[in-house]
Each structure stands twice: as structure tokens, then as C-alpha cells.
Amino acid sequence: MYHVLPETTKYEHLIYDVIEQVCWLTLNRPEKINAMNERLLAELRAALLRADDDDNVNVIVIRGAGRGFCAGHDLEEGPPSDEGLSMYEYRLKYIRQFEQFTTPWHVSKPVIASAHKFAIGKGFELSLFCDVSIVTSDIRMGYGMLRYGIAGHCMFMPWLVSMKAAKELLLTGREVSGKEAKELGLATEVVVPEQLHEATRRKAMLMARMPRDMQRLHKMYLNRVYEMQGLKSAADYYLELVAIAGMLPEYAEFTKLTADKGLKGALYEMRARYEGLG
Asked: Please, what's the b/e burial string for 14-49 (b: 16 or more CB within 10 A of its CB; e: otherwise)?
């Protein structure tokens, strides 16, 4: 697992900009549609902590460079790092990743997700852990990777939607549009693609002018309300289930297909079984 110190100012997969008290964090792996590898995840956590400690920053925005916000976990990076791990080591690895990944929830300043085109898997979860999510009308959001036997990570989604909606999305792996995401409670605002930057900028500037300590107080309060209702316990339980499950047979099949046919070939073959079903 990569470790990047918060005082780091040089990033490999991230761009850090501060403009008018707004810190813009840009996921910068456009050739991979900003798929999350361990390096990017570590850099994102470090940058969020850096911005949270910066007196020149009142609001943080996370966005993606290129064709989409984030296509999820970088499937070409793993799972070799999981090979040979005991159940305890596997569990510990994912607990540490969970701590990194939920940093937007834990930092004291407001975090806005500005998401376009793709927010799949870890990209979807990242947008959910931000305090406000502004998405484009053409976006695809959800846990599509469940269809390949790849589990989620943070499982925050059930706290934002109804029980029926949560079950339908998790038991089918269906992805949703920006319009449906807002209707379900998975997004704050939906805009046409060409208006995303301006809509995000205006929301960030509005939030940046609020009294900082008042915002921090209410973010901490609201987060604690949901944690007291069971959010943290439920998320911890899901991590335990993922650790116990380890590599599911369907994921083993997908991994073998990837090795035999390449990632594109494996995705094509796995998607074929769902063709025409939604």
C-alpha cells in the first residue's frame, strides 16, 4: 500500500489547485478514465488532508480529467497484490483502504464531487462520500462491477436511498443516469455537461463564503447523526463480509478471462450474459 504524506506538493496522478479559497483536486489518469490505483488513492487522501489544513482553503472540489470522473478500481493493477494473503491480512488491507477512501467524509471542510460521464464502482462510492455531488445528465453511476463478482468497498449507498432502491441496485448491478441518481438521492444536482464547471464553481464559491467554523460544526454534527444511527457499524460489517468472501468464484473467472483475453475481451464476454436485460 502506498503512503503519501499530507505535506507532499508533488503528485503523479493528481492536480492540486487553489483558486479563490476553493481547492480543486483533479484525478489525473485520463488514459484510464481516472481508474483508482493504490497510488492515486494515497495521493487523494494526502491532498484532502493538506487542503483541510490550509487556511487559504474553505471548500474542496474533486473532479476528473478527460472522458469521465472515475471508472472505478484499476482492474489492470490487481489482484496480484492479494495473492498469498491470509484472511486477516486481506481484511487489514481493505480496512486501511477504507480509511483512505472515506477521507472526504472525515475532513472538516465541505467536499464537492463534480462528476461527469462515468462514476462506476469506487468512482461511484467516492462521489457518495462527498458532501455535495453535482453530476452531468449523461453520467453513468453505480456498482456495475458487481456483475463480474467484484464487491463494493464502502457501501454508503443504502443510507441515501430507499430499501427497495438499494436492493434493486445491489442485486442487479444496474447503473443509473444523472436524472435517476438525483431522484433516488444519489446526487445533489444534475446539469448538462457543458455547464458542469460553472455550476460547480458557483456552488463552491457560495459555500466558501459561509462562516468556516459554522460549516465545520454542522458537517461534524450531521456526520455524527448518521454514524449514531448505524452507518459506521454497517460499513464495518460490510468490510468484514468482503474479507470473509475473499475472491468470489465469479471474480476468479473474470481474473482468468482477463489473463487469457485481456481486459477488453474479458469485459466483452462477461457483459454478454446481461445483454438486453438492463
From this structure: bebeeeebbbbbbbbbeebbbbbbbbbbbbbbbbbb
CATH number of 14-247: 3.90.226.10
pLDDT tens sequence across 82-126: 666 676 777 787 788 888 889 999 999 999 999 999 999 999 999
In angstroms, rounded to a whole number, what is the distance separating the alpha carbons of residues 193 and 53?
Answer: 32
Residues in contact with 9: Cβ distance below 8 Å, sequence separation at least 6, in sequence order: 16
How far is residue 213's CA from residue 28's CA, in Å, rounded to a whole number? 31
CA 256, chain centre distance (Å): 26
208, 54 in Cβ contact below 8 A? no
Stated pTM of the model: 0.92
Chain centre distance of CA 62: 10
Cell of 70: 472515475
Per-domain residue ranges for the chain? 14-247
